[in-house]
């Protein structure tokens, strides 16, 4: 993982991959039937100098007031 390239995949690389795949696996009508997955991961870890969250109930201002909207209870449907 540390030695992987950090540059995005180039269009020419994808084009060449498609050519090779087509040569090997295309249907008689030259259609390529394939599926693929793109996997993307991101990680995060807290740092000691990072601001700590307040304990539940310690807020001094309601979020609805800060956003300038009416607060809805959990049972209400939004927009009604």
Output the radius of gyration: 26 Å
Shape: elongated
Content-based structural category: mainly alpha
Q: Kindly report how far apart the N and C termini lie.
A: 50 Å
The multimeric state of the shown protein is: single chain
How many beta-strand segments?
Answer: 0
Percent of residues in β-strands = under 5%
User: Percent range for helical residues?
Assistant: 25-40%
Tell me about the largest β-sheet: none
* Separate helix tally: 2
Order of H and E elements: HH
Low-confidence spans: none
Mean pLDDT: 86
List strands and helices in order, with pairings.
Layout: H1 11-25, H2 63-67
Structure in a nutshell:
This protein has about 80 residues and is mainly α.
Detailed description of the structure:
There is one protein chain. By secondary structure, the protein is mostly helical. It has a domain at 9-37. Helices cover 25% and strands 0% of the residues. It has helices at 11-25, 63-67. The longest helix has 15 residues, at 11-25. The two termini are 50 Å apart. The model has no long low-confidence stretch (mean pLDDT 86).
């Amino acid at each position: 993982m540390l030695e992987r390239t950090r540059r995005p995949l180039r269009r020419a690389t994808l084009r060449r991959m498609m050519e090779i795949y087509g040569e090997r696996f295309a249907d008689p009508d030259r259609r390529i039937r394939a599926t693929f997955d793109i996997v993307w991961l991101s990680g995060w870890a807290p740092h000691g100098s990072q601001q700590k969250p307040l304990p539940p109930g310690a807020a001094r201002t309601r979020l609805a007031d800060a956003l300038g909207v009416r607060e809805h209870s959990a049972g209400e449907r939004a927009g009604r």
